[in-house]
Amino acid sequence: MFYLQYIFLEQLLNKLPQSVHTSIDYYFQLKHILGQLSVNSSNRLHSIIEELLGKNCFHLQKDIARICAEEHMIPQLAECLSWNNNYNDECYMVLAEYGKLLDSPTRRKIVEGHIDHIRTRAIPADSRKYCYIVSNMKALRDSCSEGQAAVNKLIEEFRTQYSRRPSMMRELNKLR
Questions:
Q1: Which of 64, 76, 131, 125 lies closest to 102 in space, CA to CA?
Q2: Which one of 1, 12, 17, 27 has the fewest CB atoms closer than 10 angstroms to its CB?
Q3: Model pTM?
């Protein structure tokens, strides 16, 4: 029985590169099989997940965060939550969902990284991007208390720094 499970585990490990779009299903299969194989399955699972994360085999940030949260892999979760997605609020939704597992200083550091990213995207005077920037600011503000404080500060900074950009001011008014 264990030999067959071991063979299936090896097949499963070799299967991932062809099926990266189903990373959560893959994770649950892997966890189930490793749970039946040995008492050190948790350590083995963590090492396999770390290896797969290093190879960028999991593409969806929410899946990676869920896996790291389920396995209590807090440093990897913090790294995942610090990723920025251009014009995509998914990273802030993931932060809202899993950020509570991190301590406040770690969340603050992650929020500061996102704020720096938003600040950089606001430098070019491109009114077509302001709605995306403000959308990211709103999502970050709603993600956690650290995000709310940082975004409120950033709004005041932008009002001062970009006061001659009427389009930017109109979009910022939507955040009130």
A1: 76
A2: 1
A3: 0.76
